[in-house]
Structures are given as C-alpha cells and as structure tokens.
Design a protein that fits this description.
This protein has two domains: 3-56; 66-256, no CATH class. 28% of the residues lie in helices and 32% in strands. The protein is built from three helices and 14 strands. The protein has a six-stranded antiparallel sheet, with helices on one face. Strands 3-2-4-9-6-7 form a six-stranded antiparallel sheet, with no helix packed on it. A two-stranded antiparallel sheet has the order 10-11. A hairpin with a 2-residue loop joins strand 12 (179-188) and strand 13 (191-202). The N and C termini lie far apart (93 Å).
C-alpha cells in the first residue's frame, strides 16, 4: 500500500473511532506509571510483612546451650591415700597419682582404691557417683558395704573403687578391663553445680605372682557451674552426661592412636 492509498483509507475511518483511540492511548500512558507505583508499593508492603513475620516468629536461642553455660574450674576436691601409709594427697586435674598411691587387691589393707569427695564451699552438696567398670564400696566401722551405682554421698564421704565385684550367682570375680571410670555429679538441692571424671587405669601386664593387677587413678576433669546474677544455671542431667561421655571418648581416642 502506497502513501496515497493509506491516506485515502484513513479518511474513510469515522472520526469517533479516531477520538476513542486517542483517548485510549492517553489513558494507557496515565495508567502505566500508576500501575507501576501500585505494584512497587504492594511489593514493598509484602517485604515489610515478611520481615515483620520473620522477626516475630524468630526461634529464640535456648539459654541453656553450651555457648551460654558459664563454667569455672571445679571446686570439688578428690583426695587419695598412699597404699603404704595414711598419707593423703589432693588429686590435681590431668595429673596421675604417684606410684605409691596405687592399689592392689591382694596387697592393700584397704578394700579398694580410696577417694574422699568434698566441696568445702557447698556444705549441703550431694555427690552422685557411678562407676563404669569395677564396683564402688563404703567402708564404715570395719564393715565393707557395696553400694549401687549410681549412689548419693554426702560431703567428705570416702568411697572405694574395687576391681572385685559380685556376680549374679553370688561369687566374686575380678574386673580385668585396663580402664574404668568414676563419674561424679554434684547437686545442691535439685541444681547441678558441677561434675568430675576420675580414670582408673591398670598396666597391661598381669602380676602372675599375685594373680592381680595394679590400679592407678587420675582426675581427668573437674568443672563447676557458678551462679549467674545470684541464680543457679539451668544445667540438665543430659548435658552433663554428654560432657562426661565426651571426656571419656577423648581419652579412648588418644590411647587408641
């Protein structure tokens, strides 16, 4: 179609339709910026709602996570006694007792390896003690008293770990593992205020003459949970038990390398 034919065709169009077309075009030019502004405002509003919802429903970080627990060196004192005398030594964390503090069931005058538990700053503290391997005893008035594991002991209680244990049929057998652990949790009322782990170790060599082993003790770790702003921390049994297992696993991994 040439220019003349196009001009003739356009002249045949009713002016009403031309005016409507012009008005429609002008209306569309006006609507587009408005529409864009409305859409932008809606998107911004949605973002604001999303941010507000995110803040409102944000899951709070539990206060009793490991990163929020305040610890310090344990106030627990574990005292051991020399096999050849009544000499007492306070066990230091990470340091094995001297050789004369070892224990041999055939040679010692004591029923087990003696350890006295105390926390001088906490008069009402209760110790919950359990053993992984061997057996725990009390020795009172010359009487040997096997205790269940775990058992609760008061401040300044002396416990005894022994490799001799009573079997289900009533006979006495010897624990032959080369490593055992004494797990200690400290409570004041219903609040956990500390824990400790003691390793009981024996050399691989078996004393054929005495038909027994020599046992040594080492305080692996002692931790306390001080009050924060005058309040007890909300320490759970599960948390402390997992920490005790971690300590024992680290020792196992080190010795297996």
């Amino acid at each position: 179609m040439n220019a003349k034919k196009f001009s003739d065709a356009m002249s045949e169009i009713d002016n009403k339709y031309v005016e409507e077309a012009v008005m429609y075009g002008a209306a569309q030019k006006t609507k587009r910026p408005l529409f864009k502004r409305i859409m932008r405002g809606a998107i911004a509003a949605c973002l604001c709602v999303a941010l507000a919802v995110g803040i409102f429903f944000k899951t709070p970080v539990p206060e009793n996570t490991a990163s929020h627990i305040v610890t310090k060196p344990g106030f627990l004192t574990v005292a051991a006694y020399a096999a050849s005398s009544g000499e007492e030594i306070v066990m230091q964390e990470g340091i094995e007792l001297p050789l004369n503090y070892d224990w041999n069931p055939a040679m010692s005058s004591r029923p087990g390896l003696p350890l006295t538990l105390s926390a001088a700053d906490y008069h009402d503290v209760i110790f919950e003690v359990s053993a992984d391997g061997g057996e725990l005893l009390l020795w009172e008035g010359g009487e040997i008293i096997p205790v269940s594991s775990p058992f609760k002991a008061e401040n300044y209680t002396t416990i005894y770990w022994t490799a001799l244990y009573q079997t289900d049929n009533g006979s006495v057998d010897l624990y032959t593992g080369n490593r055992a652990y004494i797990n200690i949790m400290l409570y004041e009322g219903n609040n956990i205020v500390g824990y400790a782990v003691v390793e009981i170790r024996t050399e691989d060599a078996f004393d054929a003459a005495e038909q027994t082993y020599m046992y040594y003790a080492k305080l692996l770790e002692s931790v306390s949970f001080p009050k924060v702003d005058g309040n007890y921390q909300q320490i759970t049994d599960e948390y402390v038990e997992s920490e005790i297992e971690r300590i024992k696993n680290e020792i196992s991994d080190t010795t297996s390398e």
